[in-house]
Amino acid sequence: MSERPSVLARATARESAESSQDDGFFIVHGPIDLDAVRAALEDQRCGAAVFFEGRVRDHNEGRQVDRLEYEVYEPLSVSEGRRIIDEARERWSILGAVGVHRGGLLELGDIAVVVGVVSPHRDEAFQAARYIIDEAKQRLPIWKREHYTDGDRHWVNCRRCSGDHAHPPPGDP
Amino acid sequence: MSKSVRIRYFAAFRDAAGVAEERVETTAETLEQLFEERVAAHAGLRAEVQAKVAVNDALVAWSDGFSDDDEVLFFPPVAGG
Question: CA-CA distances (angstroms) from residue B71 to B8, B12, B21, B23, B37?
Fold first, then answer.
């Protein structure tokens, strides 16, 4: 196998040797290396590979977004992300799954999260990828702060606890 | 009985509390009670329905207890992806 691109290889090396596969959830602080994700999921038993990319969008709840900031609590994001992948492997006959989430400041169009799943047939890969991204969004200790074009900024999903924005988002009581 | 714990606040909770971490003495028995104490201590801090709590890097329930010298992590509603 060709040399593994750096980010995922480093992250994989940091994981314990508990799994011989490349499965896992990783946090990176620079651009996500899609080639590394694809390489980690090469498997000739699998006829289907499904990849999801979550990208930075230029608007949310009616406001123009300029850039995004992700804060990640890494120890629990990695362990909980791995748990989600293990759950997906128990539910569907997939043969590999990788998740990567980026932390730090991201610009519009940047890839914030990638989920890749391989399986012998496509149905399981689609379902498992959907499960992994949905659960990751709800369970991983990761927070997104939107920076708006008007200079304001706001922690997403945190309506009452955030004192750092002057205007509540539309629909806030 | 009083316990001493290290508390860490993340994202919006850190902004609201005005500190990233603190060591506190408490007589609270559950994590919910501990959070309520911190709400009383920090003017900007508010409870959030979707907030989570972890003790020593494991997610736990708000109704759980905790021990002397634990590290308690208060997570505001998450928003990954």
Answer: 8, 19, 10, 9, 16
Q: How many degrees, rounded to 5, is the angle at CA A53 between CA A133 and CA B52?
A: 35
- Chain B CB within 8 Å of residue A34 CB: no
ipTM: 0.95
CB A121 within 8 A of CB A97: no
Q: Distance of CA A4 to CAs A13, A17, A22, Å?
A: 11, 17, 11
Task: Point out which residues pair with A1 in neighbouring strands.
Answer: none
Q: Is A78 exposed, middle or buried (0-12, 13-18, 19+ CB in 10 A)?
A: buried
Whether the pLDDT of residue A171 is over 50: the answer is no
Q: What would the mean pLDDT of A144-154 be, rounded to a whole number?
A: 95
Compare CB distances from A54 to B44, B73, B81 and report the shortest one's residue.
B81
Locate the DSSP E strands across chain B. Answer: 3-9, 21-26, 52-55, 58-60, 71-75
Mean pLDDT of A145-168: 74
Rg (CA), chain A: 17
**pTM attached to this predicted model:** 0.86
Is A25 an 8 Å CB contact of chain B? no
Read off the amino acid at residue B2. S
- Residue (of A15, A43, A55) closest to A125 by Cα position: A43
Whether A80 sits inside 8 A of B16 (CB atoms) is no
